[in-house]
Amino acid sequence: MHTVEVKHVVKSFADKVAVDDLSFSVAPGEIFGLIGPNGAGKTTTIKMMMDIIKPDTGEITILGEKSGEATKNKLGYLPEERGLYKKQRVLDTIVYLASLKGMSERSAVEKANQMLEQTGMLPHARKKIDELSKGMSQIIQFIVTVIHEPQLVILDEPFSALDPVNTELLKNMVLALRNQGKAIILSTHQMNQVEELCDRILMINKGRAVLYGALGEIKSRYKNNAVLLDFEGELAAVPGVTEKRHRRGYAELFLDANTTPQQLLESLLARGVIVKRFEIATPPLNEIFIKVVGQDNE
Asked: Tens digits of per-residue pLDDT, 3-20?
């Protein structure tokens, strides 16, 4: 059973269609990237999954149940706009918000202390929220999101404002949730984070799905006829190469339509080039994003 099933969902506001016949699923134990330009319909889709707003037509199920009151405590949501009680102490905030998700005070205190220790935040447990840095507040918000062990976790721009240390900490916590069999929906504009973390993605534009599937398959679908090469030797006048781009520690060679990577490799070796690394190049997700959205907007 999929954790999330969205089937032919439509949502309009006045005369504007925000979500247009959208269908997708999210499985247990996967990180699912929900991406698209601003105004594409991502936030509306999330709000419908959370039963904040209702779809006009179509159906959304969470763990086999229609999205509604019965499913609210089965998900955790980290909003892009963070909202914690600024004058309340860290531990009190976590325990109070955990109680709203059905946890007993004893269980909430025990789990909160455990997660504060895990994140290095235990020394700050008695501080007020407004005494914390923005990054620290974000870690607390993440703890609040997952403390009740929801089966579905929705993260909206979770890495914004985090320094590299806290970014790595949060990534590891997200990966741990996946390993526990949780379904995680990651909505972000940071395509490098999507590439690093996500198993499958859905790209929305103008309320419609324009890309959907396994990340590796999508990148292969949009690959150029190009290779990445780490080498020693001379690359001048290699037959079949139309363009060379030098990057950090390697070169990217673009081939003409009549030249295969295997033919290029044979040609390089015949010229005495020492090949240390040779692999088919796939475009970064950011490049695919720009291309797909651009084509869809034409």
From this structure: 999 999 999 998 899 999
